[in-house]
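PROTEIN SPECIFICATION:
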Amino acid sequence: MKSHFKNNLVCQLLSIDFPIFQAGMVWCSPWRLAHAVSEFGALGTIGAGSMYPDVLDEHLSKISQATSKPFAVNLPLLYPQIDDHLELILKHKVPIVITSAGNPKTYTSFFKKHKIKVIHVVSSLKFALKAQEAGVDAIVAEGFEAGGHNGKDETTTLCLLETLFGKIQIPVIAAGGIGSGRAMLSAMVLGAQAVQIGSLFVASEESSAHMNFKEKVLQANEGDTRLTLKEITPVRLLKNAFYNKVQKAYEECATQDQLKELLGKGRAKKGMFLGDLTEGELEIGQIASVINEVKPAKDILQMLLKEYFSSLDKIKST
């Protein structure tokens, strides 16, 4: 299987065997998950957006001791203690940083100066071009099917890839709604050189998501997630009592300040990490409706590759 991807641009760029990224989901992406994915030969990612500096320091120490394989840190650029995170990334010689939620020009030159590969998450052609101009090594093109924070325009992954095709010269990693090897192959046919997957790994054994949240994901049906709170920051949520409160607030024409007050602080931690399925924010992608089992990360990756090659063989035989 490795030989099939030997000429893949992303695999060559990052020194990985398989063009699969595990997304750096807040509250769900600890070092254990990143380690399992990287050891397999894909790209594991630690989600720094939900970690205080001392917590990130601990996770980086553990993964650095556990593997010599490449791994990444997902770094939201709006993180309030970002300077501390930058110091830790340098301290632990993190080889790859995936930036999001901010202007890529701010820190890309800093990372490149320290020989760190930079990948930036975008949701539109406009921002993809800005990221390319800023000098990033690759972009993650994320459609609105994805869980967590998202683009306002609700552009699907398929349409986003079509829009970027021929206009972006750096490698593109597709994200949003990818839950099988079939979808992985489809994204690569549309011009992506790799895929980033989050929701499947939320339901992995190594994920730090609370078991209550994992079970809720397994129970999700088609239509059970919705992109909301665009006035603050767009986020795809699994419907629960808190989501219903948000919808009621909209019906009552709540102001932006009122929505912020309703959201408060710590909602995502409450729901995804502490397991409060009533008052917590449950961030997950549309693809949750097809997830029906909690598996080790290794099994998820093996499934993806088996389906990818099976689908490729079917295409070749038609």
Notes: The chain has a mean pLDDT of 95. The longest strand covers residues 71-76.
